[in-house]
Please model this.
Amino acid sequence: MIDGKKVLYSGMQATGNLTLGNYLGALKNWVTLSDEYECFYGVVDMHSITVRQDPAELRKRARNLLTLYIAAGLDPKKNCIYYQSHVSGHAELAWILNCYTYMGELNRMTQFKDKSAKHADNINAGLFTYPVLMASDILLYQADVVPVGIDQRQHLELTRDVAERFNSIYGDVFTVPEAYYGKAGAKIMSLQNPEKKMSKSDENPNASIYLMDDPDTIMRKFKRAVTDSEACICYRDEQPGVRNLLDIYCACTGKTPDEAVAEFEGKGYGDLKVAVGESVVSVLKPLQDRYAELSKDKAYIDSVIKENAEKANYYAMKTLRKVQKKVGFPEKVR
Ligand code: ATP
Ligand code: LTN
Model:
């Protein structure tokens, strides 16, 4: 609790261009929840280097991502928007929690398996302990709730297990966090292969809608989206392509799947694709305009970076000191 409010933590990696999946699965929910909670949103650049990055590119993407958080509607006066690498407590807590996490637990993580298959030439220890750094992000701020897409479920479970393990040895040190998955959009699938999640790192640009895609590109990608030969606009597992389009439509319009299906009764896939495309364009356009405006204001973004890093550090240090004391590190002599 901070000032009587529950705490929310979430973050995104500054790798690749954000997709509609990132927005509908995570960022959009962050904005909805931001009034109710005391919120911390990290640009998790330390996680990004678990796969090889070009330094100049990483720096640029991290700043763009931070700007995008604000453009999406997060007020940096109320929400702590900051770079993970500016708060050394993340790395310090991660080291400690590494010593309370089992190899067997980390070996089961599907994201590690997927990423090590994809980057077979660089299966580093950071990639393996990635979930421990993520647990540290969350536990450092004593978060009650963590809004993420469903792909992060395993990491959230691990975070809870590590927190409970630590608490069972040392007393109530950490708040045990709950995951929050949005109703619509928790798992947006690729437009080219609806069995696979939409991902920033997909090689096929037609598979993902990027948040900065212009309206023509968005409409074109939806027109090319893979559906099926059933010729029925139904919301069911057997039609993953159509269901994904309906999910996107619902997440963008606030309608329920039943309402959407009723609306498209008697219509064809072409109509559905145009309507989905238009709903996405109208959600992304204001975000893109605000982003363009904010990017020009260097001094403002710099002030957000500075002030929020200080705020994040303050809360991070509070937890870290407590943990250091619990595990038996000697107190500093002042
Ligand atoms: P990469 O493809 O590089 O692994 P990613 O697209 O999965 O990246 P992350 O930075 O790992 O992006 O995720 C940021 C947030 O977006 C997380 O909360 C994640 O759960 C959510 N997210 C990612 N992809 C989707 C998706 N297709 N549908 C819903 N949520 C998603
Ligand atoms: N692992 C997450 C990004 C992430 C995160 C976090 C999300 C890092 N630390 C803390 C929520 C809370 C991902 O890849 N999507």
